Amino acid sequence: QVQLQESGPGLVKPSETLSLTCTVSGYSISSGYYWGWIRQPPGEGLEWIGNIYHSGSTYYNPSLKSRVTISVDTSKNQFSLRLSSVTAADTAVYFCARFALRQIPRGFDIWGQGTMVTVSS
Amino acid sequence: DIQLTQSPSFLSASVGDRVTITCRASQGISSYLAWYQQKPGKAPKLLIYAASTLQSGVPSRFSGSGSGTEFTLTISSLQPEDFATYYCQQLNSYLLTFGQGTRLEIK
């Protein structure tokens, strides 16, 4: 079955760049679907960060757009998130997920388990 | 940006109860709305998409309705495993947004 797994540092210093990778197994990214990142600060709700299509087309949350880059590496079946100039407000659990868009948008149907990233010196 | 407002933010109910959660959009989104369930320490789970279509494997006690700006998620008879936080998400544009969540707790 399709599985997603986030990986990356759990601690990032303020002003530095947060980098996470999502490895997809059981499905080839280049076959289709959009792939996305969502985050959740401790005790708070979900915030969509952005999506990428296998072709490389990206869509970002306007509130984060100036600091976010999402990229895809089809050869490794991975997609990645980079968030620059982080502050304590970027401390959150970061999820990667598959966005189903088949005739109509269906939402994020498969999720990774999430990875906690803390921004602190 | 399309804003989503869920009500109530907190709901206390008993096993067997029928509960309804509302999600209102700041502008019309046709039927492009999804509902998720999230349990503590876990990733969200897709329950419903296209406002009323049940995701595969989701129990039939869950149902969704609505279109335009007002949507509801109904659980017909609460089971112990249903106590969780529920989020709506609009899918009307490529810029996605979530509601703030409704926490459903055992009375």
Poorly predicted regions of chain B: none
Mean pLDDT of chain B: 97
Terminal Cα span of chain A? 39 Å
Shape of chain A: globular
Helix content of chain B: under 10%
Instruction: Please give the number of β-strands of chain A.
Output: 11
Order of helices and strands of chain B: EEEEEEEEEEE
Coarse shape of chain B = globular
Walk me through the structure:
The complex is a heterodimer of chains A (121) and B (107). Chain A is an all-beta fold. Chain A contains no helices and eleven strands. Chain A has strands at 3-7, 11-12, 18-25, 34-40, 47-53, 58-60, 68-73, 78-83, 92-102, 104-111, 115-119. In chain A, the strands form two sheets. In chain A, strands 2, 4, 5, 6, 9, 10 and 11 form a seven-stranded mixed β-sheet that branches. In chain A, strands 1-3-8-7 form a four-stranded antiparallel β-sheet, with no helix packed on it. In chain A, a hairpin with a 1-residue loop joins strand 9 (92-102) and strand 10 (104-111). The relative contact order of chain A is 0.31. In chain B, the strands form two sheets. In chain B, strands 2, 4, 5, 6, 9, 10 and 11 form a seven-stranded mixed β-sheet that branches. In chain B, strands 1-3-8-7 form a four-stranded antiparallel β-sheet, with no helix packed on it. The N and C termini of chain B lie far apart (36 Å). Chain B is built from no helices and eleven strands. Chain B has strands at residues 4-7, 10-13, 19-25, 33-38, 45-49, 53-54, 62-67, 70-75, 85-90, 97-98, 102-106. In chain B, strand 5 (45-49) and strand 6 (53-54) form a beta hairpin. Chain B is an all-beta fold. At the A-B interface, strand 5, strand 9 and strand 10 of A face strand 4, strand 5 and strand 10 of B.
Write a brief caption for the model.
Chain A is mainly beta and 121 residues long. Chain A has strands at 3-7, 11-12, 18-25, 34-40, 47-53, 58-60, 68-73, 78-83, 92-102, 104-111, 115-119. Chain A binds chain B through residues 36, 45-48, 51, 59, 61-62, 95, 97, 100, 104-109, 111-114, and chain B through 1, 32, 34, 36, 38, 42-46, 49-50, 55, 87, 89, 91, 94-101.
